Amino acid sequence: MVQTSAELTRVTSESLLDATRAVVAGGGSSNMRNLGIQTPLVLDRSAGCRIWDVEGNELIDVNMGYGPHLFGYADPDVLGVVAQRLRLGAITGIPHRLDHEAGELIAATFPSIEQVRFANSGTEAITSALRLARFTTGRDLVVTFEGHYHGWSETVLRKAAITGGGADPHGAVPGAPGMIPSALSYTLQLPWNDTEALERLFAERGGEIAAVILEPICGNAGVVHPLPGFLERIAELSASNGALLVFDEVITGCRVALGGAQELLGVRPDLTILSKVVGGGFPVAAFGGGKEIMAPLARNEAFHAGVFSGNHAAVAAVVAMLGKLRDDPSVYETLDLIGGELEQRLTKTFVAAGRHARVVRAGSVISVALLTERQDGVPAYDAGVPLIDFAAHRRLQDLCQRAGLYFHPNPLEPWFLSVTHTPDVLDRVVGTIEESLSRL
Ligand code: PLP
User: Fold this and answer.
1) How far apart, in Å, are the Cα atoms of 411 and each of 95, 222, 345, 366, 396?
2) How confident is the model over 103-148, as pLDDT tens digits?
3) Which domains does the chain have, with CATH numbers?
4) Helical spans, DSSP H, in 88-246
5) Band (386; pLDDT cuts 50, 70, 90)
6) Which end of the chain is more exposed for a tag (fewer CB within 10 A), N or C?
7) Distance CA 97, CA 71 (A)
8) Average pLDDT over residues 421-434
9) Global pTM?
10) What pLDDT was estimated at residue 377?
């Protein structure tokens, strides 16, 4: 007989995860969710920056669902708008007045965007944007950078993107078994922050490159900022060679500044990918650019579709979130203060505990990683990842999780702060790290 979760005699995360694994492969619907966790954790609810497991334990969360929740989980403002929309019809498959409102808000927020298309996930939006770039330029090659993650689709998922390098970072090693190896033969990968390698590639193959895609501030190999001038050089070379510059702002969009990294760093891409914060925690993504770039889609010559793409509930979430952010952009100062304080306190804590660690921040995104040896300065991607002590980080994660602080067991996944990470919460975060380091 099937035992439902309510019938399990004493529901614990462990027992429920075991039961779930019988019916959901691996226990969670993303490999990243089933990777590296040592003590089972199954949730019941979340609010603000707090999560509660099925046993009723409260934890502080600094992973925050990988980043969408700038105002914390279950923000009543965004929730209210979406709940209202759900009652009025969540999806019809027909253009809706909200499409106009959300499109206008995005165009007013992001310097490089005049038109968008909505999608359901970053992976989908990126797949469509790269297809559009190939169509527009009539070229095949796409350039990516080591450590940057652009979703799990066939032409972009490489080994280095999910393991944090080490394994053949320059070669076309598919990121997962079952992928078509030849699908990566049109996707070249360069080391991040390496201007020489970039210039060499453009000198040799510039006329074949359809697009260069990157996270303007890398957030998937920990936080790795672009070195001064690097983005500008990519933009120059792309423009002079007729390739499109694509900013994957899935993390940075409305996170590092209202208008994303492109506003913060003053570099304009041809195409931008948005998701996470823009959707306020609802499953929505968008890609967009100037009218000329989007024209093949406007004419229905390039192909992009999806039953749920731009469904009314998701678009309502975009309207609510962007409306709220644009009404009070001072939220970015608040987030920067919260991020700055945590960065400082964590750095001191690791030093005081005699641990080598890297704490790197972009506004309210902080990457925290234990290292095997001391490292000075901001690492370029290549130099940084091999020093990460993955095993020690996982042990620290487990100790913290048991003590009521959740962050991802993979040190390449950054922490995402929200306005609900108030001073008392930061005290608890730092206290838990201190205590756990003493037991590591
Ligand atoms: N791009 C970046 C920078 C991301 O961080 C992610 C996911 O975390 C993606 C793309 C893929 O988005 P999704 O998981 O919604 O497909």
Assistant:
1) 42, 7, 18, 11, 10
2) 999 999 998 999 999 999 999 999 999 999 999 999 999 999 988 9
3) 5-66+330-439 (3.90.1150.10), 76-327 (3.40.640.10)
4) 97-109, 122-137, 159-163, 195-205, 230-241
5) confident
6) N
7) 26
8) 98
9) 0.95
10) 67
φ, ψ of residue 206 in degrees (nearest 5): -50, -40
Q: Would you say residue 409 has pLDDT above 60?
A: yes
Residue with CA closest to ligand 1 atom 13: 122
Q: Provide CB contacts within 8 A for 31, sequence distance 6+.
A: none
Measured from the CB, is residue 129 less than 6 Å from ligand 1? no
Cβ–Cβ under 8 Å, residues 68 and 281:
yes
Give distance in angstroms: CA of 275 to centre of ligand 1: 8
- Reported as a pLDDT band with limits 50, 70 and 90, residue 439 is very high
Using only C-alpha atoms, what is the Rg of the chain?
A: 22
Give residue-wise pLDDT tens across range 321-338. 999 999 999 999 999 999
Q: How far apart are alpha carbons 184 and 75 in whole angstroms?
A: 40
pLDDT recorded at residue 220: 92
Task: Say if ligand 1 is within 6 A of residue 287 CB.
Answer: no
Selection from 115, 103, 111 nearest residue 262 by Cα:
111
Spacing, Cα 9 to ligand 1 middle (Å): 38
Cα separation, 311 vs 314, whole angstroms: 6
What number does the ligand 1 atom closest to the CA of 121 have? Answer: 15
Question: With 80 as the cut, is the pLDDT of residue 160 above it?
Answer: no
Report the distance separating Cα 158 and Cα 173, nearest Å: 6
Ligand 1 pocket residue status of 251, Cβ below 6 Å: yes
Distance from Cα 27 to the centre of ligand 1, integer Å? 21
Query: Using alpha carbons only, what angle is made at residue 341 by residues 335 and 345, rounded to the nearest 5 degrees?
Result: 145
Mean pLDDT of 17-34: 92
> Does the beta carbon of 250 lie inside 6 Å of ligand 1?
yes
Which residue out of 220, 252, 284, 416 has the highest number of ligand 1 atoms within 8 Å of its CB and is therefore the one to mutate? 220
Cα(392)–Cα(370) distance, rounded to whole angstroms? 7
User: Which residues are catalytically annotated?
Assistant: 149, 248, 276
Phi-psi region of 4 (alpha: psi -120 to 50; beta: other; left: phi over 0): beta
The yes-or-no verdict on residue 167 having pLDDT over 90 is no
Average pLDDT over residues 195-222: 96
pLDDT of the residue at 175 = 80
Do residues 414 and 276 make contact, with C-beta atoms less than 8 angstroms apart?
A: no
- CA of 285, closest atom in ligand 1: 15
